Amino acid sequence: MTELSSGVTVIVIPQPTCNGPLHIGHLSGPYLAADIASRAARARGDRVLTLAGIDVHPNYVLTKAENLDMDPAEMVAKFRAQITKAYELARIGYDAFLDPQDPDYRRAVAGMLGELVANGTVPMREMTLHKCADCDRTLHHSYVVGKCSLCGEGANGLSCEGCGGFASAQTLIDPSCARCGGSPVPMVASVPVLPLEDYRDQLLADWMQSELPGRVRAVLEYYLRAPLPDYPLAYPTNWGIECDGVLAGMRVDFPTELGFSYLYGAAHALRPRANGLAEWVEAWQEVDGVWHFNGIDNAFYFTILYPAILAAAGVPRPLSRGATVNELYLLEGKKFSTSRNHALWADEFLAEEDPELVRLYLSWDRPDRYQSDFTRQGYRAFCEFIRPLLDGKRAGDWALPPELVPAELERAEQALRLIGFDSALAIRCLVGALSTGTGLDSGAMTALIGRDPLRAAIGR
Ligand SMILES: [Zn+2]
Ligand SMILES: [Zn+2]
Question: Which of 107, 154, 211, 372 has its CA at 20 to 30 Å from residue 335's CA atom?
Fold first, then answer.
């Protein structure tokens, strides 16, 4: 597998859940990294198509609005504005914006699922789901809490933050209603199900040939031994894109929506006139593969569910090319927490700071290998250190010997490739070059600070 290929690599910037603004921990993880890698790929002449968007359909969003006693639509509009402002201020660019509030997008997602049910690819199965005995909510995602059956950590009905495995009300140990504490009662419903085990061969081929970090492979190792779950693609519930036809009364489950959003979003960007599942799948002939930037806790989705949705939709080849994952970023030694107001909001911080310095610092301190820690003191010291170099001033007696500069510039460029992406290394190499008054116009520096205007055209 080479990074120099004629096809398009789809780079996915994960859609943030619209239940709060982005904080700089988010930026330090997938968001900036995906943007920097996309810019570096374009500068090399690789064809990449970068997808970004927002996610309004996890029931965490409704839960948040109810907790804040806000109208859900008003709350979504407020956070959406803050999230897109943060993208803009941080110079996070993209070729296509996956917009769940766009009627065409919603029609496309519900339509693709409906078509796969109608043609028998996605079977309807009677499943025992659970609802709350007290408040009657269907217990999924933020509505249920329990312990992960794989690692024992506390988890909601989604992927487990502890181990990245799949959790649902049906698999959690000691589940209860997260909203009122009520007990789960079984409820049999006929829902569209993706039997992931049926896609094992395609998924294995995908896993074999894609560049996945060890922590992601550890999640997959479990599924090499254990059966892949039957995944409900829609639920009878009160939040999400409404289905119609045989699925009337159900809502598309939001990870299902995300899987279809990548299929539709890339196809629509490549062939704007394509319409309907068959034509969108056809458009994917131009795609070489998908590269996900995401947190480790979403490993189940980007290595199993999303590729299986593409396979079910009829995209024929293994399409995962790899993933770049990150750990959590800490703030002054503690986890970011919205409820404790222990956060530095990206839109507010970027409005006051030089975005180039923010991008460089978050790249320098990226939580890629371990939980690194944002401190205001560290950020200020970094700015004072790097600003004169960005202004073209040479360092004094610590400047790098000029003979070493070409190697440092080359290593910085190579560190921004998708395979082995390491922005923290790139900026360290560049500091050496900058100390001699060179490197400011290098491709790596341009990608790191995000100064070049992102071309809207897909880098041909
Ligand atoms: Zn309840
Ligand atoms: Zn777990």
Answer: 211
- Asked if residue 439 has pLDDT above 70, the reply is yes
Alpha helix stretches (DSSP H) within 250-337:
254-270, 277-283, 299-300, 306-313
Ligand nearest the Cα of residue 180 is 1
3-state helix, strand, coil in the chain (%, to 5): 45, 20, 35
**Cα of 287 from ligand 2 centre, angstroms:** 33
Question: How far does CA 203 lie from the centroid of its chain?
Answer: 19
Q: Which residues fall inside 5 Å of ion ligand 2, going by CB?
A: 148, 150-151, 160, 162-163, 165
* Angle (deg, nearest 10), helices 72-89 and 59-68: 110
- The DSSP bridge partners found for residue 159 are 166
**Cα separations in angstroms, 27 against 14, 34, 354:** 11, 10, 15
List, edge to edge, every strand of the sheet that includes 154-157: 154-157, 141-147, 173-177
Residue 40 and residue 205: Cα distance in Å, rounded?
28
With b for 16 or more beta-carbon neighbours within 10 A and e for fewer, the 132-150 pattern comes to beeeebbbbbbbbbbbbbb
- Residue 397's identity, in one-letter code, is D
Taking the centre of ligand 2 as the mean of its atom positions, its distance from the CA of residue 37, in whole angstroms, is 30
Give me the amino acid identity at 95. D
CA of 77 to the centre of ligand 2 (A): 33
CB count, 10 Å around CB of 70?
A: 13
Ion ligand 1, residue ranges at CB < 5 A = 132, 134-135, 177, 179-180, 182
Query: For tokens 């081929």, what's the residue?
Result: 205
Q: Where are the beta strands (DSSP E) in 277-404?
A: 287-295, 320-326, 330-331, 334-335, 373-374
Of the candidates 379, 392, 385, the one whose C-alpha atom is nearest the C-alpha of residue 331 is 379
Q: What does the buried/exposed string (b/e) look like for 163-194 if buried means 16 or more CB atoms within 10 Å of the residue's CB?
A: bbbbbbbbbbeebbbbbeebebeeeebebbbb
Ligand 1 center to 80 CA (angstroms): 28
Provide mean pLDDT across the span 62-74.
Answer: 94
How high is the pLDDT of residue 452? 66
DSSP state of 54: -
Residue closest to 292 by CA, chosen among 318, 262, 263, 322: 322
User: Mean pLDDT, to the nearest integer, of 322-331?
Assistant: 95
pLDDT band at 402 (very low <50, low <70, confident <90, very high): very high
Q: Which residue has 């009657």 as its token pair?
A: 136
